[in-house]
Amino acid sequence: xxxxxxxxxxxxxxxxxxxxxxxxxxxxxxxxxxxxxxxxxxxxxxxxxxxxxxxxxxxxxxxxxxxxxxxxxxxxxxxxxxxxxxxxxxxxxxxxxxxxxxxxxxxxxxxxxxxxxxxxxxxxxxxxxxxxxxxxxxxxxxxxxxxxxxxxxxxxxxxxxxxxxxxxxxxxxxxxxxxxxxxxxxxxxxxxxxxxxxxxxxxxxxxxxxxxxxxxxxxxxxxxxxxxxxxxxxxxxxxxxxxxxxxxxxxxxxxxxxxxxxxxxxxxxxxxxxxxxxxxxxxxxxxxxxxxxxxxxxxxxxxxxxxxxxxxxxxxxxxxxxxxxxxxxxxxxxxxxxxxxxxxxxxxxxxxxxxxxxxxxxxxxxxxxxxxxxxxxxxxxxxxxxxxxxxxxxxxxxxxxxxxxxxxxxxxxxxxxxxxxxxxxxxxxxxxxxxxxxxxxxxxxxxxxxxxxxxxxxxxxxxxxxxx
Length: 468
Ligand code: 6PG
Known about the structure:
Elements: E1 7-10, H1 14-25, E2 30-33, H2 37-47, E3 52-55, H3 58-63, E4 70-73, H4 79-89, E5 97-100, H5 106-117, E6 122-129, H6 131-137, E7 140-145, H7 147-160, E8 163-164, E9 167-168, H8 178-207, H9 212-223, H10 230-240, H11 263-274, H12 279-292, H13 294-303, H14 315-348, H15 354-360, H16 371-381, H17 392-400, H18 402-414, H19 420-432, H20 439-450, E10 454-455, E11 462-463
Helix pairs in contact: 1-6, 8-11, 8-12, 8-14, 9-10, 11-12, 12-19, 14-17, 14-18, 14-19, 15-16
The structure holds 6-phosphogluconic acid.
């Protein structure tokens, strides 16, 4: 344990070990610790002749690090993060830095940064996306916290991040919890796009009767078009996977109950707090919750007539429209996520550069897609864009696909197949570019029963009416 190591990492699960190997392959010496000795042993085994030290106590970890120390955490979000920080506090000294690389709730990150600042310890909250593969070969990295603290660690992140056209998929996001906030919204978009893909899958599987093998070809084809994305790529691969034991497509053997760790729900909840509409994210969370009510659904299926109608029209035409519909819906999803970031940036003082967010999401992360380059360019043209839908090029892309989106929704309703994310995508788009919404009536109703007052189109001021 002679040479002082540049970076420490606590949490040697698969993600942690892969990230250690990634950093080491880029020339950084890393000391890793996990309270599970098997993980420490696995790290030693995988490290081979790399500059990696795997230790069995936090004391050894801290002792092995170059001062001022930098310790990354890749442990489960929540109380485990606080417990590990508590343990480190007795070992670190002012000037050292803790970097939380997990999916922590952004308000926890803000609190931790303040608590640690009082003790002279720097704290960064860093969102990392890309799963095990990303951690090993290049994730998208969203760091937040004090800029001076980030200055010390950026070379490591820049070397380890994914690259697109030579650009590393990492950028300083902003102060406090900015990094974890951006990661949270990333996950909200992730949930929403997964739900849109699931609906398209349902329409083709239940509506058109396509087999998993045929669906592989469809999603693979979509992934070669304008909608190309990591999530479509893995969906195509999932469709092709055959279960060894049964010889059947594995996807058909998986229970239809989605689980969640909660990041998508947080994104949706905080959008509500901010008053930003993100209906595709909301419905994605709701549909995971609905899927989990398997028993209730089965009972209801028995009690109600669950007849599914045969597909009513031209299959070829429907398939072509569905691809367009899916693309339009994903655009409205990104629009909602970016609008949430814009609002949070102002409200929480994150000072986000939305072009940089789009840039670092182009590679490494779960929501990477060809369309992120369009978003990046839109913010390059107009950094203050209220919503990417008002960018001429992007708005036109959805407008051109409005009819296919409508047709897909009508077909879904005709076939009794729930497609709520596609439906709210259209409703959001139509409402967002509507100069008038029926909120005048809502205002009148509020004033009727609660004397909440209303504003008029023809006069300044606030008014109340004796309606009855
Ligand atoms: C990523 C993923 C990652 C994780 C999600 C899964 O960006 O690499 O989002 O963070 O797989 O937390 O979330 P759910 O369990 O809530 O679906």
